[in-house]
């Protein structure tokens, strides 16, 4: 290698070797969405400590107080009060608890049901596919909200029932999307190779199909989070959701609507803002996860 | 030498439009394969090679029916097995290598996981043991630094390496028969040669019987002991590789051999076979090759030729085959 000195030195760019989880530590971490979701989750957990006053009891003499920084507001109610004089900040803090529990649980339960049925339908095909897909079609033909109201009327209002209702209504979306993915996956050669290697149908579905559709499931889940929270709000508005006086963002939004024309904007804008922030952060996080979960993109 | 695989009178048809349209993808195919030997199946696209291979593993696409015949593997009738018995045979005693190495591996798992999967499915091996075996198998298919490669994802490897990983999966449970369906079509020439060499070595080490499906006669000449030539679903000629190349009995085989480009002989013209392979759903009457055959006689147009013995272990389906001296 003596003549190698004669060659012009080439400055090689040294790439750091990525480890298994290095992608999660790297610089493109979505700081803002994680921070927002983290704060919301912490708020939900420590609601009892954080809330300045009881979210379910108000003083009628203090009704429709504006936020503290506006003329007429007071330090006692930083974000003002509602139509029965309840502290908006405290209600928002406790509302986070309801929204997060309902939103995440419903998305996860619906996702689990929909993904399972979608994989079975897409991979097994034949009559299984026919039964599941016709059921899904029928389900989708029912207007989601009407269906949810009907179910709510049957099982009665409570937070857990809302979760059951929302998962029962929204699993069809997952089933549809996942089945479509599975149809293309099952024709891929690695699935055929697994068949040739003597793997059983269940092994193939668990090991080869499920991990490959999980990305779509997660992305769909983050999108559904918004839909679920808004539906929960609608149900609460119609009186079949979270039973008042329990605070829920949707319920606050609905209650506040009455005061919007009268200039009590904080009753709608603030819970609306909370919903927007949560849905947006969940979407951004989901998008980032989608990239991170793909080993091919992970290394880039 | 014991007979490992015996196929007789095998027919596989694709039935479409409620049975009104029948495609005879494999029709009345018979051959046998001894342990440790290599059989090449050649033919144009659509001649039924892949369908034949899938029938041997009893993995038929929807719409395909086994219309008749039998396949005996290690003395057992494949068609009377239950589905779970078949699953135990596939991958364990009979393995297959698919065409496209890029698509044959699951992008989400490391190659070690994927080799271990087959081991764990068939031999109830613990996770750690399977992983160690996976590393040894990578070494067996001549992958450098197997202890590092075993933990890598498919996209971190080149096409040739991925195809070798697929080979490692195929031999992981010490099969008796390996079916390779055009294993080198998507590899470039130098890698192709290396891979074929590797398959030969593995075959010798493990006394493996191979069925090599290809349309490349050069590979057949290099790799195979016997050759089966397929045309429109039928086996038109079967024999030892030397005889097939030196004294082909069927005009189709001869045409195939003449259409190999020869380097270094500027006077030889490359001849192509006239016409197109027939639509297997609407075969011409008589011998399916007669519209393209240069030696066609009147009899070929009306009557399909039977299988005739040309020499020892050399058979052909042609009216003219038996007339030539042996």
The strand order across the widest sheet of chain B is 6-7-8-3-9-10-12-11
**Overall shape of chain A:** elongated
Rounded mean pLDDT of chain A is 80
End-to-end separation of chain A: 34 Å
Largest sheet descriptor of chain A: none
Q: Output the structural class of chain B.
A: alpha/beta
Radius of gyration of chain B: 21 Å
Which helices and strands, and how do they pair?
The complex is a heterodimer of chains A (300) and B (326).
Chain A: H1 22-25, H2 31-45, H3 47-50, H4 88-124, H5 126-141, H6 144-155, H7 159-185, H8 189-196, H9 201-237, H10 249-260, H11 266-293, H12 295-298
Helix pairs in contact in A: 2-4, 2-11, 4-5, 4-7, 4-9, 5-7, 6-7, 7-9, 8-9, 9-10, 9-11, 10-11
Chain B: E1 3-16, E2 21-34, E3 38-42, H1 49-56, E4 64-73, E5 76-77, H2 83-89, E6 94-97, H3 111-123, H4 127-140, H5 146-149, H6 159-171, E7 177-181, H7 189-206, E8 209-214, H8 217-223, E9 226-231, E10 234-240, H9 241-246, H10 251-258, H11 298-302, E11 308-311, E12 314-316
Helix pairs in contact in B: 3-4, 3-6, 4-6, 6-7
Describe the fold and architecture:
The complex is a heterodimer of chains A (300) and B (326). Chain A is mostly helical. Chain A is built from twelve helices and no strands. In chain A, α5 packs across α7 (159-185), α6 (144-155) packs across α7 and α7 (159-185) runs antiparallel to α9 (201-237). Chain A starts with 21 loop residues before the first helix and ends with a helix. Residues 1-5 of chain A have low confidence and may be disordered. Helix content of chain B is 32%, strand content 25%. The A-B interface holds A 188-190, 192-200, 203, 207-208, 211-212, 295-296, 299 and B 57, 59, 84, 87-92, 95-96, 98-100, 103-109, 114, 117-118, 121-122, 153, 155-156, 166, 169-170.
Short description:
The complex is a heterodimer of chains A (300) and B (326). Chain A contains twelve helices and no strands.
What attributes characterize this protein structure?
heterodimer; A: 300 residues; 68% helix; elongated; B: eight-stranded mixed sheet; 11 helices; 32% helix
